[in-house]
Amino acid sequence: MRRSAWERPWCGSLRAENVGETVELAGWIRRRRDLGGLVFADLRDRTGIVQLVFESEMLAEGERLSPEDVVRIEGTVRPRAEGQTNPDLPTGEIEVRVTAMELLTESETPPFQVEDGTNASEELRLTHRYLDLRRPEMTANLLLRHRLVMEARRYFDEMGFVEVETPILTRSTPEGARDFLVPSRIHRGSWYALPQSPQLFKQLLQVAGIGRYVQIARCFRDEDLRADRQPEFTQIDVEASFIEEEDVFGLIEGLFARIFPLAGIEPPERFPRMTYDEAMERYGSDRPDTRFGLELVELGHLAPGCGFRVLEAAAAEGRVKGIVLPGGAALSRKQLDGLNEVVRPHGAAGVLWMKRTADSVASPARKALGEDGVLRFLDAAGAGEGDLLLIVAGAGKVVHAALGALRLHIARERDLIPEGRHDFLWVTDFPLLEWNEEDGRFYAMHHPFTAPRPGDVVRLETDPGAVRARAYDVVMDGSELGGGSIRIHSAEVQRRMFAALGIGEEEARARFGFLLEAFRYGVPPHGGIALGLDRIVMLMAGRDSIRDVIAFPKTTSGSCLLTGAPADVDPDQLAELGVRPAGKEG
Question: In what order do the strands lie in the sheet with 212-220?
């Protein structure tokens, strides 16, 4: 009965043209149906299911099967009986009459049903992830990820890129998030760090003359988690020499034209461009979802002297902006009050609403503004009869963040996002630096090696907050798919960048000395981008969490429910490393 595994067909590959063939199959029993004198069973592998028929001398073999048993069978492909075909299955026209079977392993009753649409909790599914991954929808996610990676590798190979692996054990060079640290047994008291990205190494490869580098790179960041963030994640990491922004844009648009059709999504040949400032002013976000309207409207010019102190104070030191919701005047007071909870996590005190009906206006600010004052705001925002104006006032960052979140909340709640539509976008001209009020200093918005726009270099000392970067993000449906920049290759510009960040020569040498040393020996102009592979697969698969497209993910607390990691280790291991757990003596 046993044949070469490589010659054996997959369960989901059989079709009507295979009728009459003798085949060997192997997989898991999905379900069994006893019909008295006849047993049907569905056999499943990663490609799909096929119906098995046990009859005559094989009846007893079929009767002893249970869900998730592992079997190998031999049988003959035949058409299903008239009226018994299943158009929902690729194998629905045929079945396999079993002539021999080997029960390889018997399964205990699983903790949840291994089917799509299971109501098992995510905690239970992650604890038994190997069962969860047997479910067809989860298997499909991993297969989509595989096809994406293979197509990306083919594309970059055709474009002359070389895949190079960079170190996992490296030195700590903080890039904005906390490093995962690994103690050295040989060099006691010293530590490796797991890379937050291959940033410095891929730049060194440009100095080395590789010219076009790519890597499916594992990255690690010890930061707070959420649905689309994991402590370990994967990037499609790209760097090339002698390029400009347009070269990067064309390269990635070409890549997306190859990978997104794998999920039935057809990107445009060229993506629209939008500056960071325009994105923030119109959408309140640097990764705007442009599939629907609800753009932000400027109202600050109406606030001075309007009579409503909250707006007057905000206009003096910040911004006053709003969103018009067509037909929103029908929202109840309870629904309007609930919008405050959407904006408060972003630092806003709340939402001020105004609405116009056929014969009147309404707003909590009507007493202070008067009816004419409310009408001025409604008219300026373009709010007509039956519309609702939602206003947030305060510091510029707070207003944009709050209205950006409110805009997305309303779109989801009121089903304003067109089904099946996908918008791609480049966001450009990010600020080079961002000011941190708490620390009283500038930080690099991307990283310290991002090049400033040539015309802005003169402002590095006089007005560093106004300097724009040669940085760019690629966005799809309000999600950032990746970001990158053209890098600094001038030693003088790099020195001035460090100075703007408050990094002196000694500190720069301590943190980035090996890169700066390499840059003394002929560094080419270069740039690149890093794409979030997990997030791209998540969006292509139509999932809400990257945990659904990673084989063995962590929870939002950074735990692996399958293995129990992180966990205690043997004290002898710690002693060998010269490490003692915090708070423990001895």
Answer: 162-163, 212-220, 232-241, 526-532, 479-486, 471-476, 424-428, 273-275
What is the DSSP code string of 546-583?
GGGGSSS---TTS-BTTTTBS----HHHHHHHT---TT
| Of 427, 183, 207, 393, residue with least CA distance to 306 | 393
What CATH number is associated with residue 328? 3.30.1360.30
> Side chain identity at 364, as an amino acid letter?
P
CA count, 13 A, side-chain hemisphere, 476: 22
**Is the CB of residue 210 less than 8 Å from the CB of residue 164?**
yes
Give the structural domain span for 364. 292-413
Cβ(65)–Cβ(27) under 8 Å? no
Q: Is the pLDDT at 160 greater than 90, yes or no?
A: yes
The DSSP letter of residue 337 is H
Question: Quick check: 586 pLDDT over 50?
Answer: no
What's the rounded Cα separation, in Å, for the pair 332 and 334? 5
If you compute the radius of gyration of the chain from its CA atoms, what whole number of angstroms results?
Answer: 30
Tell me the per-residue pLDDT of 292-328, one tens digit each, with 9 for 90 and over.
999 999 999 999 999 898 899 888 889 999 999 999 9
Q: Do the domain assignments include residue 504?
A: no
Alpha-carbon distance 488 to 500, whole Å?
Answer: 14
Burial-class residue 275 by CB neighbours within 10 Å (0-12, 13-18, 19+).
middle
pLDDT beyond 90 at 384: yes
More confident residue, 5 or 106: 106
In SS3 terms, 419-483 reads as: CCCCCEEEEECCECEEEECCCCEEEECCCCCECECHHHCCHHHHCHHHCEECEEEEEECCEEEEE
Do residues 395 and 382 lie in contact, with contact meaning Cβ atoms separated by under 8 Å?
Answer: no
For 375, list phi and psi in degrees, rounded to 5: -60, -35
Q: Is residue 21 part of a domain?
A: yes
User: How many separate domains does the chain show?
Assistant: 2
Nearest CA to 107 among 22, 29, 162, 48?
29
Is there a contact between 36 and 3 (Cβ–Cβ < 8 Å)? no
Confidence of residue 351 (pLDDT cuts 50, 70, 90): very high
- Picking from 54, 80, 105, the residue at the C-terminal end of a domain is 105
Q: Are 578 and 189 in contact (CB under 8 A)?
A: yes
Q: What is the mean pLDDT of the chain?
A: 94
Report the CATH number that the domain containing residue 37 is assigned in CATH. Answer: 2.40.50.140
Longest dimension (CA), the chain: 93
H-helix or E-strand spanning residue 498: helix 491-500
Burial class (CB in 10 A: 0-12, 13-18, 19+), 505: exposed
Residue 268 inside a domain? The answer is: no
Structure tokens at 87: 């158009």
Last residue of a domain, one of 105, 138, 160: 105
237 vs 346: CA distance, rounded Å: 32
The answer to whether residue 357 is domain-embedded is yes
pLDDT tens profile 44-77:
999 999 999 999 999 999 999 999 999 999 999 9
